[in-house]
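[job 0412] stage=complex_fold ligand=adenosine-5'-diphosphate status=START
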Amino acid sequence: MKKILFAAAEGAPFYKTGGLGDVMYALPKALAGKSDLDIRVVLPYYASLMPEQYQKQLKDVTNFEIKVGQNSRYVGIKSLQLGQVLYYFIDNLEYFGRDGLYGYGDDGERFGFYQMALIEMLEKVDFIPDVLHINDWHTAFIPVLLQDKYSWLAPLRNIKTILTIHNIKFQGVYDPIILDSIFGIGRQYFNEQGFKYYDAVNFMKGGIEFADKVTTVSPSYAAEIQTPEFGEGLDGILRENSYKLTGFLNGIDTELYDPQTDKNIAINYSIQDFDKQKAKNKVQLQKELNLPQEDVPLLILISRLTRQKGLDIFLAMLDDFLVLHHVQIALLGTGDSDLENDFKWMQERYPAQFSANIRFDEKLAQQMYAAGDLILVPSAFEPCGLSQMMGMRYGAVPVVHETGGLRDTVPPYNEYTNEGLGFSFASFDAQTLNQVLSYAYDIFTQKPAAFKQIVERDMRADFSWKKSAELYLGMYRELWQN
Ligand code: ADP
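[job 0412] stage=complex_fold status=DONE, emitting structure tokens
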């Protein structure tokens, strides 16, 4: 039986801040359904953030100490079986017993510790994977460590590594002092072919150079990150490594996100009765959000509130759009405080039309997917994007910027051939966004039969992990056969 180990900094249903968390739940689950694979996942143990129902199921596996620079640090290993997937959690309260997951001044040390603890765990829990599938910068340094610091450990020498880039913007860039003060390694690979980036240590670059394969989460993004516009300074490195770079489209967990069975939504529905039932979900949501219970198009937006998500062009056209259209908009998100404040202010200005919900709330997110007629995802760049797929699954038609995974998942509506899954725009500016949103509004209000057909196509489309899980599996096979 082949052994696959996933490593990441977050994973649903334990903790999620975005798409990475969704993927760490859904992809291992999709693969575990296949015979002859032992699939496990390692995550940090963010003690106070794990829901109680899972806390109760945790088992203590072992504990030991590792060196972080000159200091000994405690490593506790806990485990939990979720369906056919075994999850390990790396416990150290000082590093992970905090209010949030990321954004601390010592993140380099926290995830440096995490990666070393993970490697040192493998022999102790007797699970040496054939393929170690790492995700984003928090785990990207592992191939470097395997090749350098831990190269003397013979049992680990045959581990093949795949790095999946979920967002190239976040790279983990630190002063080279950490080579000594955290990792305790020399400068053998601190060069242009290694993890050196200008004068700094770059975790993501190390992963790209040292992993056996590099993937990203959509074919379009795989091409985009090799250009200066999207590569965030690593485009040259990615072009050099393009022989091992591929894009596999993310999926969503179609069991968890199913309007027919979702327990979080007011009324379950299917493709047969969505128009009637969606209207009831809409009324429920309007009540909850204090919006007038009117039969108007409802536009939803569920997102981290950052510049990446195109929220500045959205804000720039919002006044005009709300004044000229009989429409309601419900927004759910947290992030940059200036954007949070701007949206709160919009709610004050347009209380009957705009609802700003500044929090992370998965239940409300599901209710919004179920109630929304249109879902807006205007991201400046988008590696894959899951919310447009979740929207389509629940019959909310996406309006997206043609970039990355948005381009790959939302073929644009063509009213002459009656094809397409949503509305999209190429030129990234407020005026163009206003035009395409107004066009979507017109189709919804003036051509309801055509709009209904788009919804039906969306709800029928296959966004499951089936295809992409096969593609990853093919890559694993290629690796363990060599
Ligand atoms: P990213 O990973 O860049 O944040 P994705 O579209 O890939 O974007 O994934 C976002 C995920 O996080 C989706 O599952 C979305 O529903 C969820 N999400 C984002 N913001 C919130 C929020 N405030 N409350 C609940 N869920 C959210």
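The pocket of adenosine-5'-diphosphate is lined by residues 18-20, 22, 302-304, 332-334, 360-362, 365, 384-387, 390 (CB under 6 Å).
[job 0412] exit 0
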